[in-house]
Amino acid sequence: MIIRETLMLDSAGPRTLEDAAAGRGRSVRILAHLFLPDKASSAPAVVVSHGLAGPKPVRELAYGCWLAEQGHVALVLDSYGGRGMSNRSDGVRALMVTEAMLLADAFAGLDALRRLPMVDPARIGLMGFSYGGMVTLLAAYEQIASVFRGEGPGFAAHVSFYGCSIPRLDDPGTTGAPALILVGANDANVSLTRTRLIAGDLGRGGSPVELHVLPEAFHQWDGADLTPRRKIPSLRPLALRVDDWYRTHGPAGLRMTGISSRMLMMLLGVDLRGYVIKRDDLMRARTDRLTRRFLHRSLGAAGARTPARALPDDRPP
Questions:
Q1: Interatomic CA distance for residues 61 and 74, integer angstroms
Q2: What three-state secondary structure class fits 90?
Q3: Model pLDDT, residue 9
Q4: Dihedral angle, C-alpha 141, 194, 104, 129, nearest 10 °
Q5: What is the maximum span of the chain, computed from C-alpha positions, in angstroms?
Q6: Is 85 exposed, middle or buried, given 0-12, 13-18 or 19+ CB atoms closer than 10 A?
Q7: At residue 122, what are phi and psi to the nearest 5 degrees?
Q8: pTM for this entry
Q9: What is the mean pLDDT of each run of 10 residues along the chain (317 residues)?
Q10: Where are any strands of DSSP class E within the chain?
């Protein structure tokens, strides 16, 4: 039996990574959904960071339940409710709820899980979808993690589902935690070229990286859209760079300092042709297997104190 509870977490609201590094940003309380396996003890755990649409029953909440079925404690974040963004458009959310805020929330989730008696604090991973997938990989860089991590172990694994391929860091040094990157070959919201560069950055920085480009998969293959649906705009052309001082640089020499510069960067970096969303149950089954195997290798099984090397039934996906 899976137990589901809701928690309120103390987080922060930095507009930019510079703000986060300087300790700027008002306090905020966010909602999170906790999924507990039956009789969990010394269990691995996963924080789930949602996509731009927010935590949806068919995706983030479904994965919270799925993770608990695998023996993980799962914490699905809601980064919008506490910031008054639950009923706003995707464009407003992308502008007002920044990656720095999502990072603050992810590490607030990490801190909450570290405090739970049934969780092994050294075996907590981070999983994210689209916008949250981008944040999941950002959290793997030591430069970023050092700002948000606080006391205690950091994330021990990172799983990115079709994460936006927007930021790269000048300093590729990572925490050393492994990363699984899943992206569709037909995903026009993600640059495959830039995703490969990001995977290379993480690898050079010290993290084992597993990148899977899934043939025929579109964006959000694990969503609700059985027939293709086009969304406008696409963020595939947008490329940002984070320097050693946490400054974010964008197109036309812009530097992100607040809402106005963020809006201008987004306007200059989008593709109005958009991208297609389409559910693919076969692809979801494949990525579920890949994720299950990766988490088992990286975090281990419930009740274990060290990650396992392989599942007995490991087979090619």
A1: 10
A2: helix
A3: 98
A4: -120
A5: 55
A6: middle
A7: -85, 0
A8: 0.94
A9: 93 97 96 92 95 96 96 98 94 96 99 96 98 99 97 96 98 98 98 98 98 97 96 96 98 94 95 97 98 96 56 39
A10: 3-12, 27-36, 43-49, 73-78, 119-129, 157-161, 167-169, 179-184, 209-214, 229-231, 240-242, 248-249, 275-277
Where on the phi/psi map is residue 300: left (φ > 0), alpha (ψ -120 to 50), or beta?
left
Under 8 Å between Cβ of 137 and 99: no
Give the Cα separation of 113 and 115 in Å (integer).
Answer: 5
- Nearest by Cα to 184 from 137, 249, 133, 145: 133
Q: Alpha carbon of 212 to those of 59, 82, 183, 198, 206: distances in Å?
A: 20, 34, 6, 13, 19
Pairing state between β 229-231 and 275-277: antiparallel
What strand order describes the sheet that includes 209-214?
A: 3-12, 27-36, 73-78, 43-49, 119-129, 157-161, 179-184, 209-214
Using the CB atoms, write b or e for 134-152: b if 16+ within 10 Å: bbbbbbbbbbbbebbbeee
| Rounded Cα gap, residues 109 and 102, in angstroms | 10
Q: Could you tell me where the beta strands, DSSP code E, fall in 85-186?
A: 119-129, 157-161, 167-169, 179-184
Answer whether 38's CB lies under 8 Å from 118's CB: no
User: Mind listing the domains of the chain with CATH numbers?
Assistant: 3-297 (3.40.50.1820)
DSSP for residue 98: -
Distance of CA 30 to the CA centre of its chain: 17
Q: What is the DSSP letter of 217?
A: -
Q: Which residues pair with 28 in a beta bridge?
A: 11
Query: Which DSSP state fits 84?
Result: T
3-class SS at 120? strand
